[in-house]
Amino acid sequence: QHPRKCYDGPPFRLINSSLATPVPSDEATVVAGDILPCMDHKRTSMSYVATKCSVVPRGILPLVLCATYPATKHEVVQLHGDKVWRITTQIHGVKDEEDYFAPKDDVEKALSTIREKMDTEFGMPQVQRQNIAEERRALVLKLMRLLDTSGDPPMPLVHDEERNLEGSAGKSSG
What we know:
This protein is α+β, with helices and mostly antiparallel strands. The chain contains 3 helices and 6 strands, in the order E-E-E-H-E-E-E-H-H. The two termini are 29 Å apart. 17% of the residues are buried.
């Protein structure tokens, strides 16, 4: 369990009736559509309750943040001789920063293209909107196919508590 920093502290729970079903491995990420902060009746303890959840492949989060989330920035740094993306994002006013092994050049190019053309289709003639959507769809499909393979995702965390990826041979730098 690794909730975003803005939810650190109190317990973070998934509702049993949520859309996400338990997965047989740790190779997935659960994304919540809604998160409800709950306080006990004496106002002495708090929990976060996640609902409207989806299970997505492990490794998709940095791709989604880098491609589509406007409050996300990345800088390229060298860490122990490896090229690393330090991804900084702000969610609910809380700054969150994590290091991921840099993606291969084709993944980096796909992320940049999606981000550069995000929302550019609005106000365009139908033909141009369709072309932008088709190009984006092809790039997203390419990224999803990378996630649908065994092994490390395209941008593994530099230090993953359970898999200890720090210093692993499965780096994605390219």
